[in-house]
Amino acid sequence: MWERKTGQLLDGVISIDPVGLSYILRSTGPVSVTGPELAAVKGSGLPTELTGDNVVSTLLSDAYAKIQQPKLQDAYFSGVAQEVFAALSSGKGEAKGLITGITRGTEEGRVLVWSANSDEQSVLGKYTLSGSVSGVSVSPAEFGIYLNDGTGAKMDYYVKRTVQLVKDCPVDGYEQTTVRVTSTNTAPANAATSLPSYVTGAGAFGVPPGTVQTNIVAYGPVQANIESAALEGQKIAFAPYLHSNRPVGVVSQQLAPGETKTLEFTFGKIVQHTEPNVVVTPTVQSVKDVVLPNVNASCDQG
């Protein structure tokens, strides 16, 4: 993440996640991470060069496993950001490849921009890189699945997910859609002891070591209702909210190592008749592997 400041006031932020950064590094080539800011972690065993192939695992997993002091982690991440920015500023990398990488990252929600300048922000709000959940950049029939770590650690790296929209049978002339989220904790069975306590959280927040807790936040289209939530086909309680006239449901879910669960949110009274789409918090997985094609439920016309 790079911040733009005027004097001491923060007036803009550009956020690029490690996968988006990997797209950029495929154009620039390897970037050395040997600056003075990184001297304190020189013996950690982390790579001295970041590439499009190793940057994701390095920044999202290995750095936390091998550097367990938060201040040193911050120093490492700051040093990496400076090295990458210096490479870009020096003109390293082929322009077409850089544009392609940044464009791909933006389309996948991995590149976001915010400005404290209201005129600038009003322009940014028209585009997906603003990250807005409402407004002109949001499709009328848009659903959203947003993932918030509840483990208090770094276990989310091990979770693999798929998200799919199931277009259910209309009810009283309104569209109805179920958002299906399937999650698997791929951490090793002995994660509680084989992974560092900083990664597992060591049970500090009430989550057993090796288990992942995720707050799954589901958004429906404007003016719709959220009808229910179900886990493995059984209805469960959920926390309902309304945000910018969009219905929201939240469920906190735990996954032990090797465990898979399927959570479904059903939305009704949908007034939009256009083809729905879903936006998902980007993860280490390729978007095409996470967001599955929409399917239609089998409706009994009798």
Keywords:
302 residues, alpha+beta, Immunoglobulin-like, 2 domains, six-stranded mixed sheet, five-stranded mixed sheet, 35% strand, disordered N terminus
Could you explain how this protein is built, in words?
The chain has 2 domains: 2-105, no CATH class; 137-296, Immunoglobulin-like, CATH 2.60.40. It contains 8 helices and 16 strands. The chain has helices spanning 18-28, 55-66, 70-89, 95-107, 118-124, 191-194, 197-200, 287-290, and strands at residues 2-6, 9-16, 31-32, 49-50, 111-115, 142-149, 159-171, 174-185, 212-219, 225-231, 234-236, 239-243, 246-255, 260-270, 277-280, 295-296. A hairpin with a 2-residue loop joins strand 1 and strand 2. The termini are far apart.
- Give me the CATH fold name of the largest domain: Immunoglobulin-like
Q: What percentage of the residues does DSSP assign to strands (E)?
A: 25-35%
Order of helices and strands: EEHEEHHHEHEEEHHEEEEEEEHE
CATH class of the largest domain: Mainly Beta
Shape: globular
Give the overall pLDDT as a whole number: 91
Taking strands numbered 1, 2, ... along the chain, how are they ordered across the largest sheet?
11-10-14-8-7-16
Q: What percentage of residues falls in helices of 4 or more residues? A: 10-25%
CATH architecture of the largest domain: Sandwich
DSSP E strands, number = 16
Q: Give the biggest beta sheet.
A: 6 strands, mixed
Q: Please report the number of helical segments.
A: 8
